[in-house]
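In this section we walk through a basic example: taking a raw amino acid sequence and producing a predicted 3D structure, encoded as discrete structure tokens. The instruction is simple. Fold the sequence below.
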Amino acid sequence: MDFKDYFPIWNKLTDDQRERLLRVTEFRKAKAGTLLHDGGPTCLGMLLVKSGQLRAYILSDEGREVTVSRFFERDICMFSVSCAMPDMQFDIMIETEKDTEFWVLPTCLYKNLMDESLAIANYSHSLISNHLSEIMWLMKQIMWDRFDKRLSKFLLEESVLEEKRELKITHEKIANHMGSAREVVTRMLKYFQEDGLVRLTRGTIEILSEEKLREIAGE
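The resulting token sequence is shown next.
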């Protein structure tokens, strides 16, 4: 399938707008671990995922990471086109978590389309609102939820994403997602292991009791 099959409001565009989109939109492929956007002032453009997985995260002055959003097939990432939005600037990094295929819609064209198309403007503002809601939800978790609850939720979500109970992920990677220190993650995982919730081996976390993790997560 092509770009038009993945862009949700394709049918609301004029023939001229569709032609311009197809002419300038670039299809790219990137290996897992590729940094697509460094959070600087230069906009990459709107990203539409065809396959794979993207991760958007913020980086503290001390180098600590925290994941703010993840994007999968058919998802659109607006963090990399925020300079097209007046008074909305996001210093957010974007990387590929898996081998990913995606389209890049250049910022200049996207801004022009927003100015002339009410459908694109409304859709874009809706996406930005969703992005901001995700960030607010994340901040609430970090500020108010216990770490064991957050970690339980993360392990359960990873298990669903990977469709397996044995997760190939390091403690450092988990810390980067959660905005914590590796030592804190390791300590809590050891508590989980002592309670029979998980089994830890090098580079692997096996979920032994999904039910108990859900209890801790409050699900």
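Looking at the output, two observations stand out. The chain has a mean pLDDT of 90. Residues 118-144 form the longest helix (27 residues). In the next section we compare this with other chains.
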